Amino acid sequence: MLADLRLYQLISPGLPVGAFTYSQGLEWAVEARWVTSETELEAWITSMLQNSMATLELPVLLRLRNAFSQQDAEQVSHWCDYLLACRETSELRKEERQRGQALAVLLPHLEVMVAPEYEESVRSTQVAGFAVAAQHFDIAAESACVGYLWSWLDNAVMAGVKLIPLGQTSGQKLLLRISEQLPGVLAKAIAIEDDQVGSSTPAQAIASSRHETQYSRLFRS
User: What compartments host this protein (predicted)?
Assistant: First the structure.
């Protein structure tokens, strides 16, 4: 039970890592009228879920969780570098690093001490910080993935609710529908081989790069 409670804390919107300040390109997609409705937001998020979360973030999280448990600093460094290399724009790389740095500052206050050989990796990506906390709190790998998925999905939906805008009820309906895909996404992530890890989200990359020079912005990405 205690591990579950620690997971809830790690995925809480109140965790001070600034997750709510990023839209991951959605802000420009709304500005360009690529995403203008509940249906289009669902399609956008589903594409990200199936072609990035299932094939990049979660597989890397699983590998980092395992590497931390085996005290394999080389694998930790490898997968953190690989994840950053897969971030296709300046904003997406900055987001990964900024959230990683915020989590690295927070973790010692939660009694999660990061060994010196892991400090640079944990600061480089939020996934590493999440993985080391999961290992410290004895959160099972699959449970950590489900929590990470839910946190990402909740933030993505709420960003769309604010930007389009949609009502809160529409947001809750979206969460209900899209969350039905999560068991399949987790199974896909678990089954993926090392040489298949990666993302294919060209629309997000375009939107993110255009967001860097967007005239008026509410979000940092």
Answer: Cytoplasm
